[in-house]
Amino acid sequence: VLSQSNGMLAPWMINRGDNRFLTYIDTTSGGTGIASAEFHRVLGAGALSSTSASSNEKVFFNGAQTFTTAATNVSVYAARIDGNITGSTNTLTIGSGGVISAAASTITSTLLMNDGSANVEGIIYNTANFVLGAAAGGADGQIVTNGNLTKFGAGTLFIQSSQATQINNLQVNGGNVELRSLTALGPAVGNLILANAGSGATISTTTGGGGTVNIALRIARDVPVVSLTNTILSGAAVTNTIGGGLIFEGSPHAQGQTLLVNQTLSTNVLNINGTTSLGDNPNVFILNQGTMTLSGRVVGGGAGALGGALTYTGGGVLQISNTD
After folding, report:
1. Residue in 23, 87, 102 with CA at minimum distance from that of residue 58
2. How much is the CA Rg of the chain, to the nearest whole Å?
């Protein structure tokens, strides 16, 4: 029998058809096996108090929620969030770390992924825009995990806030992520891992001066193609820097791995500081316009016949400072 808690299986197991978590109903007792789990309660738009839900419940927040007081906090086991949750001093604790979102939602409260004894991985499945923080570079909309955050689903996860707690690994298993703060993964360098074919990331800063984003960009092994967009929320051209390097984890196939780099203005510049590590088969940059500079070391790949090979194409300029 599959292991489950509070009437649901692991939070990464969902029904994409009805946007619910899954449960297992024992077939030896006349059950149907794996099925959609019912929510313990559905909360329409309104005010959140400490008694709105309990920590062993799966809760569907079906509409905008505002915490009643600055000191109010709410704990649930798993959440579907289809609406804004407002309260910059408040905390919504999610025991399993699991969140589903099927409608555009902005969160200004803290999302604490904690099972009651320790922080756990955050797992977000979203089919619409899911936004952490009210404005780019702000302090609200914090997300606190055990250092790991996984996002999947066709929607975009926007991290607008400057995160005070480190996200060591943000893995994108579907859809896109947009970072609107230089410290969107925390005060130190965190790994942004693009782990699904066609998944993408956007670096979007608020000023023309740009800055250094605390990430290392990793293209997960066997993922053939991903995209990276370098842009600015408003104003003139931007120069942004990825501070922790670029890693192609490689592929045994002849196609290798391709990074599509989209600069929204021809005068945009994207710098890669740290090491650019090439995979064990061909690596391809496709740069539509602007300039991309590999400022750190560029090191070869593994034992593949074309390990460490690098091909560039497109309308922009690729600059390489040094190679090994």
Report:
1. 23
2. 21
> What angle (nearest 5°) sits at the alpha carbon of residue 228, between those of residues 190 and 233?
90
Output the six-digit token pair for 110.
Answer: 């803290």
Question: What are the C-alpha distances in Å from 269 to residues 143, 194, 210, 219, 245?
Answer: 30, 21, 10, 21, 16
Give the model confidence (pLDDT) of 270-310 as tens digits.
999 999 988 887 788 888 899 999 998 888 766 555 566 78
Cα 11 to Cα 16: distance, rounded to the nearest angstrom: 13
Range list of β-strands (E), 215-288:
215-219, 225-232, 239-242, 246-248, 257-263, 269-272, 276-277, 283-287
Question: Dihedral sign, CA of 310, 195, 159, 202?
Answer: positive
Backbone angles phi, psi at 29, to 5 degrees: -110, 20
Q: Is 87 left (phi over 0), alpha (psi -120 to 50) or beta?
A: left
> Is the Cβ–Cβ distance between 23 and 36 less than 8 Å?
yes
The residue among 169, 239, 175, 179 whose CA lies nearest residue 203 is 179
Residue 243 token pair: 């501070």
Amino acid at 254: A
Q: Which residue has the tokens 């929204």?
A: 264
Instruction: Report yes or no: 320 and 291 within 8 Å, Cβ to Cβ.
Output: no
Q: How far apart are CA 292 and CA 287, in angstroms?
A: 8
Question: What's the whole-model pTM score?
Answer: 0.95
> CA distances (Å), 161 to each of 66, 131, 158, in order?
19, 9, 9
Tokens of 136: 């780019």
Q: Would you say 236 and 263 are in contact if contact means Cβ atoms under 8 Å apart? A: no
CA distance 65 to 54: 16
Residue range 211-248, pLDDT digits in tens: 999 999 999 999 999 999 999 887 778 899 999 999 99
What torsion, rounded to 10 degrees, do the Cα atoms 127, 181, 169, 277 define? 110
**Whole-Å CA distances, 262 to 11, 183, 204, 209:** 33, 21, 12, 19
